[in-house]
Each structure stands twice: as structure tokens, then as C-alpha cells.
Amino acid sequence: MPYRKALKIIFLAFILLFTSCKSGRLLKKAYKSYEVGEYYTSAQLFQRSYRKIKRRDQKAEVTFLMAESYRLTNQNLKADAKYKQVIRSKYADSIAYLNAGLVQLKLNRLRDARKNFETYLEAHPNNTLALNGIIACDSIAEWNKIKTRYTVRKHDVFNSRDSEFSPSLVGQDNDIVYFTSTRDGKNSGKTNAITGQKSTDIFMSRLDSKNNWVKPEPLDEEAINTEFDDGVTSFSPDGKSMYFTRASYEQGKALGTAIFKSERSGAKWSQPNEIKLYTDSLADSLIYAHPAINADETVLYFVSDMPGGYGGKDLWMSKNIAGNWTLPENMGPQINTPGDEMFPFIRQNGELYFASNGYPGLGGLDIYKAVPQQQEGEEELTWKVSNMLSPINSSEDDFGITFESVKEAGFFSSNRKDNKGHDHIYSFVKPELEYYLEGYVRDEKTDDPLSDAIIKLIGNDGTNVKVKTRKDGTFSQKINRNAEYVFLAT
User: Fold this and answer.
1) To 10 degrees, the CA torsion angle through 470, 475, 478, 479?
2) CA–CA separation, 418 vs 426, rounded Å?
3) Per residue in 327-365, pLDDT tens?
4) Are 340 and 354 in contact (CB under 8 A)?
5) What stretches of 36-166 show up as alpha helix (H) in DSSP?
């Protein structure tokens, strides 16, 4: 009997040791996944490891890393729950308060967000992100009352159950659109350990003879859509040059994010060539992404985390001189913040649009408009940056805008109102203002209104019309903006 009891104790000890080793291996794997940026996988592994952890401080750390993993994969409700658990455990790193506040901003839980920003500021009184977070909490209600003239709707052709984002309008008639999507494409790969979604491909749609967008299809060329993440495009005005991002990846190892260029000949795109922007030994581990090319292809704007930035991801620029790209220049503190600035778009008039979570905003990434300002006597440009407000921006992530040439219309992407945090494409338009000249014709002696009087209107825009007054002596005539007119009543 004692012998059998001893065997049972040894067997139980072996089971506990085996379980402990297995749990330790799982936790080690979770840390490794988090370290290389596989946040979707790390969240799952930390969750599975959590119950086996005995030490309170380690439990708090794993909970914090779970919260971070959920935040970085847009699982905001789960992230919020884990940050609250971390804060209750009195986790040593105060960054939990800042990141909890940022998540709660996206969830529109402004009271909780403000409290966490205030707590973080006690230890870091000059932190820009926390200070801007408090400004946002205090201002969002007023900002939402400002009604811009944009109208927004979710597009009914481009979207799917998966993610689609960063549309690019191409062609003189803006009759072709390219965008990035995780839906099943020609070369769709397995689930990405970083995002939990499939790898991204580049898709295209065009307007048919009835001015309707046709069902999107992936680009046929195998050289463009690979097993890696391909997408976030920018085009030359003639649509013959395409710049795009490719993020190469192996399980447990990121192979680098780079910008490529492909040329179109007829209906085919050429084998893309990588644009080398940095020659340092650290270059392969850095991010070069989200290209935006200007009208004459002489300046390339892009996103990078290379040294010399202002925190997070910054916007940079490089100039094409005699076929060679210059050493990148940071866009400076007028554009960049301690947060992330991403998804640039440059219009033909020089206006720069980008997404940022570093300014006081409505929550998550907001789209900003930067207008270049040339100061008299100074060669260097300055920028006037403004938030595009609602309905372009929301409490969630809004980014990747494109315009129909000179019109105030186009598309952008957002993960608003999607429980899974998937991105979708929205159209927007700002109706053009119409201007009218209105007046009243009366008898100078009796002050009575004169019906059927004739008003002749001549403008320096070529206008030459005659308008008849109504019975009450009033008249109205549509006119053009920024024109000069003379008129005569008879």
C-alpha cells in the first residue's frame, strides 16, 4: 500500500512538472510572438498561458501584454477589459494608463479616458499624447456639433466581409480605382500572425458604360500580388507608374517592409523594383511604407520608423534627382507628432493629406489636411494642419483618402461600426456651393415694386443675360464665384 501511494505521488508530481514545462514553453512562445510583432498570435498564446501562471507580478505583466496585443490588432473591447484588469493589479509600468486612455477614446468612453490620461500625466507631466488626449476628451462633443458639408456613405460595391482600405483613383476621368484587401485574391495566403487576417492583395475596379463600378478583381500579375502583404498604392497622373508597399514575412520573423515601383505597358504591370531609400545596416529591419508620389514624380512621401523621427511612425520625403532618390528628409514637427503619422496622399495643388493619432482628434486615426504656406522671403515651406472633422472622421480609425482630381469628392477607409475592427471603403462628396444675385426693382417716386422690369447682367466671366422681375419686383440670377458683374435695370 505505501508503495502504490508513493507511485501515485510520483506520477502526480510528474504530471505537474510536465504541465509546468508545457505552460512555460507556451508562455515563452507568447513572448517571442509579441517580440517579433505577431500580435494576433501573442494575444491567443498569452490567454492560454494565463491560468497556469502563479506569480502575481507575472500575471499582471502577461495581462498587460494581452491588452497591448488586442490594442495593436484593433480588438478594442478586449483591450479595454484587459487594461482595466492591469490597472486594478497596480502594474508597475504607467504606460498602461496612456494606452488604456487611447483605446477608450476610440470606444468613446471619454470619462474613463480622461481619468487615465490624468493619471499618466502625474508621472509624465509633459507627455504630448496624454495632453492631447485630455484636449480631445474635453472637445469632442463640441467638434461633433461642427457640421462640415461633406456627405459620407459606405460603398456598396468595393466592400466585403474582410478588410479593404487605402483606395487610389486613377485615370484622367477617375474611372479606375485600386485598393488593398484581405479578401480571397489570386495569391491569398494563410492567416497572418500579426493581424489575424489573410495577407493583403491589390484589387481593381472600373466604371462601366453606365457609370457603375464593376465587381473588384485582384491584379492578375503574380509579380504584384504575392504570398506577402502587398498594397497601399499611389499612381502617377497618367496611371502608368504604380508605387506600393510590400511587407515580407516568415513565421516568427519580419523580413522588412519596402516600397516598390512597377510600370504598366498596355494592360500588364512590369516586375516591380524596390526603391532603396536608406543604406544603413539597420535598413532591413525598418519600415518604408505607404508611398505617395507627387504629380511629376519628383517627390515621394512615405512612412517610416527610421532614426531621427519624432516618435512612432513619421512622414518622410525623398526627391528624385536625375533618377536617384535622395536621402530621406523628415517632414518635421509641423506634420509629425510623438504618435503615428501614416497613409499620406498628395494632391496636384500641393495639399498633403495624412492620418494621425498624435493630434487632438475624434479618436483613433483621424484624417488631416496640411496646406503648404510660403512665407515671404523664406525658401522653406511651412504647413497649416487641420482636422477634417466629422463625418470624414469618427471615433475609430479613418485613413487612406483619395480625391477625384480637383473635386471635393473621392473615397477613404475606416473601421467605424465594424465589430471585428475590419476596414471598409467609404465615398465622400462636398457639394459645390451655388451663388445667386438677388435684388429688388422699385419705382423711385412711388416706391412701388416694378414687375416685368428687365435687368441686364454682364460679367467678366462672359455672362451676358437679361432677367425679368417677378410681380413683387424681385429677381434672382445664378452667378459664378470670383467674377465681377455690372447690371442695369430698365
Assistant:
1) 150
2) 13
3) 999 999 999 999 999 999 999 999 999 999 999 999 999
4) no
5) 39-50, 56-71, 76-88, 95-106, 110-123, 128-145
Name the nearest CA neighbour of 299 among 280, 279, 315: 315
CA atoms within 13 Å, Cβ hemisphere of 258: 19
Output the CA–CA distances (angstroms, integers) from residue 225 to 161, 180, 263, 422, in the order listed.
20, 10, 15, 21
Q: What is the DSSP string of 159-210?
A: --SS-EEEEEEESTT--EEEEEE-SS-TT--SB-TTTSSBPPEEEEEEB-TT
Closest CA to 360 of 315, 393, 312: 393
| Interatomic CA distance for residues 259 and 287, integer angstroms | 9
Q: What is the pLDDT of residues 88-147, one digit of tens each?
A: 998 989 999 999 999 999 999 999 999 999 999 999 999 999 999 999 999 999 999 998
**Residue 113 near residue 137, CB atoms below 8 Å:** yes
C-alpha cell at 86: 492591469
User: Quick check: 358 and 128 in contact, CB under 8 A?
Assistant: yes
> Is 466 in contact with 453 (CB distance < 8 Å)?
no
